[in-house]
Design brief:
globular, nine-stranded mixed sheet, D-amino Acid Aminotransferase, Chain A, domain 1, alpha+beta, D-amino Acid Aminotransferase, Chain A, domain 2, binds pyridoxal-5'-phosphate
Length: about 350
């Protein structure tokens, strides 16, 4: 494996106030960068001062959106150590996204070394206040200067890092959700299972309209029938209906979330019945009306668990669990974040300590 060269900036930045981090607004002193060309493959892995890229205006990513990304966090333990959560899953998923977008694969060992080295170099940026962490954003984009549609012959792989607080300003308070029946996020056969920028660009319009109407997120329906529930915002979605937890099955249009699969494994280990099954919006609404929809939440690395307090569909508001966080949702949040921050023992082998 090629060694990662490290260059430091002349002046280090001032750290932001740990109580006012927000999400994704501040960036550390360094970033990881590596180049690709058809002749050389991936080459020159390096840690350099955080700063702008020079891009040719014809760079293919700017025209054809050939790019993929990942999102994971480095967590500060109470003993001062730093750890990652299920990092191998993020690495493998990024390569699956690359495969879908015709981007060359990245060596998994080098990818892990890159994440680890960046966190080590910027370790003073890993915050320690409750619910804060260092968000890591690996991404690859096409740089070949060519206005013509084909897979690029050159790429940049980079990782940037951002100290973050809670994803929602409201904290773990339940959010209001708008069920979207015009725009769709993804279709089977498309790129829904890949973390690629274009998927998100296509969701902005519905998201903005929902926000204007006072909702925090959009609940996406499938692109073919506009009938089956898929995801919520950029999170997976789980429901507790009549004592059982259900979530839509991964079928190509749904992003296979690490948090989603962690929720399912934890619930199974607790003996809570759960299953991956199709759920129609009509069934969801009837469950809400009959009081069988006991709890609902979104899952994703950024917000971890985001309880849903209200859904809006067909001009009707449906309140879930009195608009309060459900008992199981709360228990799951405490347990999962307990493992992530190292407050409780990890029985699943999900944690990698790096410092
Ligand atoms: C990243 C993402 C998720 C959540 O995945 P995690 O691995 O749990 O962070 C869910 N849906 C979409 C569309 C995403 O981009």
């Amino acid at each position: 494996m090629e060694t990662i060269k490290i260059t430091h900036p002349a002046i280090l930045k001032e750290k932001p106030d740990p109580d006012k981090l927000g999400f994704g607004k501040y960036f550390t002193d360094h970033m990881f960068v590596m180049d690709y060309s058809t002749d050389k493959g991936w080459y020159d892995p390096r840690i350099v001062p955080y700063g702008p890229f020079m891009l040719d205006p014809a760079s293919m990513v700017l025209h054809y959106a050939q790019e993929v990304f990942e999102g994971l966090k480095a967590y500060r333990r109470a003993d001062g150590g730093i750890q990652l959560f299920r990092v191998k899953e993020n690495i493998a998923r990024m390569n699956r996204s690359c495969e879908r977008l015709s981007i060359p694969q990245i060596d998994e060992e080098l990818f892990f070394e890159a994440l680890k080295t960046l966190v080590e170099v910027d370790q003073d940026w890993v915050p320690s206040a409750p619910d804060t962490s260092l968000y890591l954003r690996p991404f690859v984009f096409a740089t070949e200067p060519h206005v013509g549609v084909h897979a690029s012959h050159s790429y940049i792989f980079a990782i940037i890092a951002s100290p973050v607080g809670a994803y929602y300003a409201e904290g773990i308070n339940p959010v209001r959700i708008y069920i979207e029946s015009r725009d769709v996020r993804a279709v089977k056969g498309g790129t829904g299972y890949a973390k690629t920028g274009g998927n998100y660009a296509a969701t902005l319009r519905a998201g903005e309209e929902a926000e204007k109407a006072g909702f925090s997120q959009v609940l996406w329906l499938d692109g073919i029938h506009r009938k089956y529930i898929e995801e919520v915002g950029s999170m997976n979605v789980l429901f507790k209906i009549d004592g059982k937890v259900i979530t839509p099955p991964l079928g190509g249009s749904i992003l296979p979330g690490v948090t989603r699969s962690s929720c399912l494994e934890i619930l199974k280990s607790w003996g809570v019945p759960c299953s991956e099954e199709l759920i129609t919006v009509d069934d969801l609404i009837s469950a809400a009306e009959s009081g069988k929809l006991e709890e609902a939440w979104g899952s994703g690395t950024a917000a971890v668990i985001s309880p849903i307090g209200e859904i809006y569909y067909d001009n009707k508001h449906h309140i879930i669990n009195g608009g309060k966080i459900g008992e199981l949702t709360g228990k799951l949040y405490d347990y999962l974040t307990g493992i992530q921050w190292g407050r409780i023992e990890d029985p699943f082998g999900w944690i990698t300590r790096i410092i």
